[in-house]
């Protein structure tokens, strides 16, 4: 069974009663419940726990981590970011959600500013599947709509994704690469755009389905050990 750690900074929900009303158990609570219903072994962790809930032991027993952060990216300790980065290179999957585009870990893994354009007007978002047949959009169809969301618009300063799975259109006319796959070391990373804290986005079945599919895609697979360095003994006789 795939072991998932759903991580969230969990600050908006504590400070804004309207957000707490939408997510009484935190955004991580809603995401964790949907992943648990999808059959994964799920636990949650949040910023204000010791070591942000990301101890060596938690990371060693996590196959895929989801990451939602926004107002407190700067409060995430560099040592913990380093620890997560190391685990991604070792093979842990990472699903970066919405405003996680500006997290230390995503910027570190991408190597670019990860900046974008945004507008908070509650407009309609339509997410188009641009890689039909990709496992992350299994069961999604051609497109789906989120009735009200924050707009994120291009240009999104990321490296060219290894695979682009979803492309968003917004009512106001902007477009955005909203489902992006990357490989770093042995790890797989999926950036998924929706999930502004003032909308019930993480209860929407299509959104939950994409996240669950992404967990399956990003989970580590058995692979042979790799070796590096000096190879003085050739496999074949060089003198024949
Ligand atoms: Zn937002």
Polypeptide structure, described:
The protein is α/β, with parallel strands linked by helices. The protein has a domain at 3-114 and 177-218: Class I glutamine amidotransferase (GATase) domain (Rossmann fold, 3-Layer(aba) Sandwich). Helix content is 25%, strand content 29%. The protein contains 7 helices and 9 strands. The protein has helices at residues 12-15, 17-22, 26-37, 56-60, 78-90, 104-110, 205-218; strands at residues 3-8, 41-46, 64-68, 93-97, 117-129, 143-153, 163-170, 175-184, 187-192. Strands 2-1-3-4-9-8-7-5-6 form a 9-stranded mixed β-sheet. A hairpin with a 4-residue loop joins strand 7 (163-170) and strand 8 (175-184). Helix 5 packs across helix 6 (104-110).
CATH fold-level label of one domain: Rossmann fold
Say how many strands there are.
9
Number of helices: 7
Q: State the shape.
A: globular
What is the rounded Rg? 19 Å
Mean of pLDDT: 97
CATH superfamily of one domain: Class I glutamine amidotransferase (GATase) domain
SSE run: EHHHEHEHEHEEEEEH
CATH class of one domain: Alpha Beta
């Amino acid at each position: 069974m795939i072991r998932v750690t759903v991580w969230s900074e969990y600050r908006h929900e504590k400070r804004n009663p309207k957000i707490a009303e939408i997510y009484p158990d935190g955004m991580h609570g809603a995401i964790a419940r949907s992943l648990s219903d999808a059959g994964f072994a799920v636990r949650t962790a949040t910023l204000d726990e010791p070591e942000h809930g990301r101890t060596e032991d938690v990371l060693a027993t996590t196959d895929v981590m989801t990451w939602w952060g926004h107002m407190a990216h700067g409060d995430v300790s560099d040592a913990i970011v380093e620890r997560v980065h190391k685990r991604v290179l070792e093979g842990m999957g990472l699903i970066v959600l919405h405003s996680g585009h500006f997290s230390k870990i995503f910027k570190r893994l991408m190597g670019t500013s990860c900046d974008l354009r945004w507008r908070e007007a509650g407009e309609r978002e339509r997410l188009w599947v641009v890689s039909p047949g990709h496992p992350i959009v299994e069961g999604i169809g051609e497109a789906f709509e989120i009735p009200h969301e924050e707009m994120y618009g291009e240009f999104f300063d990321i490296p060219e994704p290894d695979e682009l799975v979803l492309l968003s259109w917004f009512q106001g006319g902007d477009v955005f690469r909203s489902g992006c796959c990357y490989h770093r070391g042995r790890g797989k990373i999926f950036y998924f755009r929706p999930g502004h804290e003032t909308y019930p986005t993480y209860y929407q079945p299509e959104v939950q389905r994409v996240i669950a599919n992404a967990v399956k895609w990003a989970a580590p697979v058995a692979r042979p050990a790799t070796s590096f360095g000096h190879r003085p003994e050739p496999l074949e006789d060089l003198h024949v």
